[in-house]
Structure to design on (265 residues):
């Protein structure tokens, strides 16, 4: 009897042990499956997050690209001196797109000898364009030489105009210079800081004549405008007047000689 009970107890313990092992294995498998599912969800989440981050990055890059696309500007300088105090031709000139102040000239200082003298005295912009093109703060430089509608370089007489086109982005300024031909060394130009081409991110357009001044280069002794023997219309050859060596200063009393407009597109 005792022997049978011992055998029965042993069998019961054996069955319990086997049943416990199966249950433990099942629990382990369930835990592993849950862990795998969590890992799968996590991987999917990471992948989705990665895709979303990439998408956001691509959108950001696209937005940045659109924001910094250059705008195309066209500047027209019209000679309106037929209604001014003294009618005068305008001469071929130079222009630059730049980021630093006083790039073309500095008000109140002596000419730097970079080509402005030849432009202001004789209407020759070539030397100035070459000098300014070498500056790291200048992104674009060029000359406007042909009057609008003309096939050859020459003066813009009253009623005609010059135009030039360039690209710029926010932070860029425009400077240009053209000779007041009935003078020894006067030129039209914006202030020495140049014209800010953007108002925030918006390109500047319209009539900007009020931003343009008449300047005395101070490189040649002045004669009465329109009468001097050493002024371009009457001098026998370039650079015939007496050197002056004075600072560049603003000239008054010649409003209405030019009109300057900017268009974009």
């Amino acid at each position: 009897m005792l022997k049978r009970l011992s055998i029965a107890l042993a069998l019961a313990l054996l069955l319990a042990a086997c049943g416990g092992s199966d249950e433990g294995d099942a629990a382990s498998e369930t835990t592993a499956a849950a862990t795998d599912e969590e890992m799968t969800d996590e991987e999917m989440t990471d992948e989705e997050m990665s895709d979303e981050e990439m998408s956001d990055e691509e959108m950001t890059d696209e937005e940045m690209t659109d924001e910094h696309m250059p705008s195309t500007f066209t500047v027209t300088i019209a000679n309106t001196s037929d209604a001014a105090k003294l009618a005068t031709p305008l001469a071929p000139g130079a222009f630059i797109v730049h980021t630093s102040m006083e790039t073309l000239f500095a008000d109140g200082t002596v000419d730097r000898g970079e080509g402005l003298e030849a432009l202001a005295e004789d209407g020759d912009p070539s030397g100035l364009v070459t000098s300014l093109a070498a500056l790291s703060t200048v992104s674009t430089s060029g000359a406007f030489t042909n009057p609008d509608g003309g096939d050859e370089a020459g003066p813009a007489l009253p009623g005609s105009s010059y135009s030039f086109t360039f690209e710029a982005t926010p932070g860029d300024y425009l400077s240009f210079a053209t000779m007041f031909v009935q003078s020894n060394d006067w030129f039209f130009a914006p202030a020495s800081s140049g014209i800010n081409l953007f108002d925030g991110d918006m390109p500047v357009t319209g009539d900007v004549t009020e931003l343009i001044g008449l300047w005395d280069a101070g490189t040649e002794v002045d004669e009465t405008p329109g009468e001097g023997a050493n002024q371009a219309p009457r001098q026998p050859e370039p650079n015939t007047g007496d050197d002056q060596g004075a600072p560049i200063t603003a000239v008054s009393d010649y409003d209405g000689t030019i009109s300057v407009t900017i268009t974009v597109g």
Remarks:
- The chain has three helices and 13 strands.
- Confidence is low (pLDDT under 50) at residues 1-44, 47-65.
- The radius of gyration is 39 Å.
